Amino acid sequence: MKPAPYTLLHKDHPYEQNFRQAQRSTQVVRGGIVTLALAPTAFAVVVTSLFLVHAASMHGIASATWLPGVAWLIALGCWAGALPALWQAQHLQQRLAAMRRQYDQAQQIDELKDQFINSVNHELRNPIMAMMGYLDIIDLSLEQGKPDQVPSYVARAIGAGYRLRELINSILDTSRQDRGARDFTPAPVDVRTALDAALILLNPQEGGTLARILQIQIPPDTLIWGEPVRLQQILRNLLSNAVKYSPPGAPVEISAEVHPALTKGRKQQQPELVEIVVRDHGFGIPPDQIPLLFNRFVRLPRDLASKTIGNGLGLHLCMVLTEAMEGALWVESQGIVGDGATFHILLPTPTGKISAPPAAT
Amino acid sequence: MTPSQAITVLVVDDNPELLSVFINGLPLVGNFTVFTAEDGAQGLEACYTHHPDCVVIDIKMPEMDGQQLVRVLRGDPVTANIPLIILTALPQDHAEFASFASGTDVFVMKPLVPRELAQAIYLALTVDADERAKRLRLLVEEGDA
């Protein structure tokens, strides 16, 4: 299959060919050096053996005792010359391996860019098409003297325009939030309060959230050390996904639990942490697609071909915001429909925080 | 060219808003009767129910996608000669689709307005069974070359 026209790096890219050539050349050079050093060594071994055989047959010390000595000196000389060259070749190999890793990363980013273009292209074209379509209908209606329906078409065109604006804003917002994620002063944040705010923020259109059974198990006064708006955004995105990617009526569970600090002797191995778990009973995530899930603009192939609207930025933002609050975020799913997915967020508590809280005034 | 007899068109797309655009827009452009379906499986069923003159198919859909629907329609003698239009969102969809397709008559890129879709439908209606067979042969020969 031909690479997508947007793909800059692919298997036949000149970089790939140059890299393979350089790797082969390094291997040849290394092999040559080893051979050049091994040949005199083999020669020295043969000379020594012949000398010993000769000495044994003569039952005495042969006259040419210097011969093996000279052969070994030559061999040692060759090794002395070869070892730095060998070291250089090894160093070159390591640099090539590092370049390989960078190249692979660049390729991964390139693939993500393709996914982004695919995803955004798909999502943007529909509202644009709806808007243009309704404007065309308005034009045709006026041309043919049928203005009755025009106000309704105008309203629909405006609605499509709003959806387009929302989509573009969400892409731009993510980019901005990505950069400013760590720009906050941490404080104690009540998890339940943040959840309540997140529920208010949830768009009722996102799968009829309010009709869902929401099973909440958060002990009172469960606090994390972070920033309230960031925690609200994380919970909002995870809940929105749980609703979007599960059938209507499927329950969504959210719980929080405090993990006490772990100490061994006088050393603290793990500070006190709060684990927030958001579990849905939806379509699940195929395990092989989980590693890519938190990257920017990633949408599962299944979702790209579905009616579910998304821009592949929500989970990336959750990861950025969680890491900004010194936390961790991961997901568990077997990709089985009905089993759904379980997202875990681990955040420090005010007592388990990394840095000291500001003094109370 | 607007034929005097009503042209029945089946539009298969998972986006209800776009279906609404075509239901309302196409009859204003010409003598069209529009049926709709929201996925490939529904589209297939609608083909047998309404026997449309032309089917417009979105390439990306849940359940049975556009490619599968085209293959099924072309594989059945009853529907093999219905003019088909594919709606694509990406230029490479066209190339990928053409590489293993399947007698699609016209490819159109989203976004497009009802007037443009009507032109594409008129164009697809000019492709007869012989022309379709000839195109398919060419496609196979290109593939072999």
Describe what you observe in this structure:
The complex is a heterodimer of chains A (361) and B (145). Chain A has 361 residues and is of the alpha+beta class. Chain A has helices spanning 14-58, 66-143, 150-180, 191-201, 228-244, 301-304, 314-324; strands at 187-190, 214-217, 223-226, 252-259, 262-264, 267-270, 273-280, 328-332, 342-348. Residues 1-10 and 355-361 of chain A have low confidence and may be disordered. In chain A, strand 5 (262-264) and strand 6 (267-270) form a beta hairpin. In chain A, the strands form 3 sheets. Chain A has a 5-stranded mixed β-sheet with strand order 2-4-7-9-8. A two-stranded antiparallel ribbon of chain A has the order 1-3. A two-stranded antiparallel ribbon of chain A has the order 5-6. In chain A, helix 4 (191-201) packs across helix 5 and helix 5 (228-244) packs antiparallel against helix 7 (314-324). Chain B is of the alpha/beta class. Chain B contains 6 helices and 5 strands. Chain B has helices spanning 16-29, 40-50, 66-75, 91-100, 114-125, 129-144, and strands spanning 7-12, 32-37, 54-58, 84-88, 106-109. A 5-stranded parallel β-sheet of chain B has the order 2-1-3-4-5, sandwiched between helices. The longest helix of chain B has 16 residues, at 129-144. Chain A binds chain B through residues 1-2, 4-5, 118, 121-122, 125-126, 128-130, 132-137, 140-141, 144, 146, 149, 153, 156, 160, 304-307, and chain B through 14-15, 17-18, 20-22, 24-25, 28-29, 60-62, 65, 89-92, 95-96, 99, 110-115.
